[in-house]
Amino acid sequence: MEEQKGEGGEGPLEPRDWEETRGAEQQETHDAPREQHEHDYQWHTGVKREHGGEDAVEFIDVVKAFGRNRVLNGLNLGLPDGQISMILGPSGTGKSVCIKHMVGLLYPDEGDVLVHGESVPDMADDELFEMRKKFGVLFQDGALFGSMNVFDNTAFPLRQHTDKGEDEIREIVMRRLGEVGLGGAVDKMPNELSGGMRKRAGFARALVLDPDIVLFDEPDSGLDPVRTALLCELIMEVHEENGGAYCVITHDIMSARRVADYIAILWKGRIVESGPASELFNSDNQFVRQFLSGEAQGPLGME
Ligand SMILES: Nc1ncnc2c1ncn2[C@@H]1O[C@H](COP(=O)(O)OP(=O)(O)O)[C@@H](O)[C@H]1O
Ligand SMILES: [Mg+2]
User: Fold this and answer.
1) What is the reported pTM?
2) CATH class of segment(s) 1-7+44-133+259-303
3) I need a labelling partner for 178 at 20 to 30 A (CA). Which of 28, 111, 121, 251 fits?
4) CA 167/CA 184 separation, integer angstroms
C-alpha cells in the first residue's frame, strides 16, 4: 500500500492539513510490536448494536501505528448514513487519526476503511479525488485562511473545485453563511471573529459542496458551554435540513447527549461499544456507564 497516494492536494481539504500530515507521516515506521494487553480490553464487548440503516463509513479491523505507538488496534466501526454519529474518547485516543483515515489522509497498516462500501486504501488517485468531494470537514479551529475574509473563505472550495460562476457562488455562500448565522459577517477577517464564529464559518465552508458526509473534529473545543450548546443546536438543524451522515468527534459527553443519534466509544484503539445513543446511555457495560455519566468512580481510572 502506498502511503503518499493522497498527494495531489486537490480534494476539498485544506492545503495546511496536507502539509501537516505529510510531514508527520515521515516519522512513521512499520515495526510496531504487536503487544496485546488483554486487560485493556476487558470492557470492550465489541457490541455493534444495529442502527437499522446503511453504513456511510466502515472501519474493519483497522490497525495503525506510528513507530511504537499503536493508535488504532483492531478498530471496527460503522457510521450510519442519515444520522448524526459521535465518536467519543479522551484526548489522544486517535479520534483525529480516524477522521484522516476516512478521507484518505492516512492509510491503515492492516484492515480496511470503506466509504459507501468502497475501500479507501484501494482507491487510485482519481477515485480518491472524487471520493473526497463527498466529504465536508470542520477542522478543530475552523482552519480558515487568515488572509481571506469570511466570504472568500467560504467560497474557496467552490472556486477551487467547481466551475460555477461568481453569481451562483455568491448565492450558495450567502445561503450557507445565513444558515450558520454569519450573514452579517461576510467582510470580517478571521482574526476579527470569536472562536465560535470561526467554527461556524468553517461549518459553512464545509457545507458549500453539498457533502454526503460531514465530519466535525471536536467542534466544542475552546467554546464555553453556552456556545457549545448553540453549536450543537446548529449542527442538528443543519442536519435536519440537509440529511447525510454527520460524524462528530468529541470528548465532551454533554454534546453527545444533545446531538448524537449513534455513539461509539473509542478507548485503547478499539471501540468499547457502539450503538443508538438511547441504548448506549442505558448500557449495562460499567465502562460505558462511567464514561457517559462522567463519574470518577468506575473502571476508567487516571493513567
Ligand atoms: N501523523 C502522526 N505521526 C505520528 N503520531 C501521530 C500522528 N497523528 C497522530 N499521532 C499520534 O496518535 C495519537 C492519537 O492522536 P489523535 O488522533 O490526534 O488523538 P485525538 O484526536 O483523539 O486527541 C497521539 O498519540 C498522537 O501523538
Ligand atoms: Mg483530535
Assistant:
1) 0.81
2) alpha beta
3) 251
4) 18
Question: Whose alpha carbon is nearest atom 25 of ligand 1?
Answer: 92
Residue type for position 234: L
270 strand-pairing partners: 267
The predicted structure's pLDDT at residue 43: 72
Mutate to test the pocket of ligand 1, among 28, 66, 70 (most ligand atoms within 8 A of CB): 66
User: Which atom of ligand 1 is closest in space to residue 21's alpha carbon?
Assistant: 1
The model's pLDDT over 198-234, given as tens digits with 9 standing for 90+, comes to 988 998 999 999 899 999 998 887 778 888 888 888 8
What residues are in contact with ligand 1 under a 6 Å CB criterion? 21, 24-25, 27-28, 66, 69, 71, 89, 91-97
Q: Any idea where the domains of the chain sit in the sequence?
A: 1-7+44-133+259-303
- In the chain, the DSSP E strands lie at 47-48, 55-66, 69-80, 84-88, 110-115, 118-119, 135-138, 213-217, 245-250, 262-267, 270-276
Rounded Cα–Cα distance for residues 201 and 180 (Å): 7
Residue indicated by cell numbers 460531514: 214
Instruction: Determine the residue of 17, 96, 218 to mutate for testing ligand 1's pocket, defined as the one with the most ligand atoms within 8 A of the Cβ atom.
Output: 96
Ligand 1 atom closest to the Cα of residue 90 is 22
Question: 3-17, 55-69, 98-112, 122-136: which has the minimum mean pLDDT?
Answer: 3-17
Could you tell me the distance, in angstroms and rounded to a whole number, from the CA of residue 220 to the centre of ligand 2?
A: 12
Interacting residues of 4 by C-beta distance below 8 A, sequence separation 6+: 22, 25
Residue 206: closest CA among 246, 259, 240: 246
Residue-wise pLDDT tens digits, 149-164 = 999 999 999 998 889 9
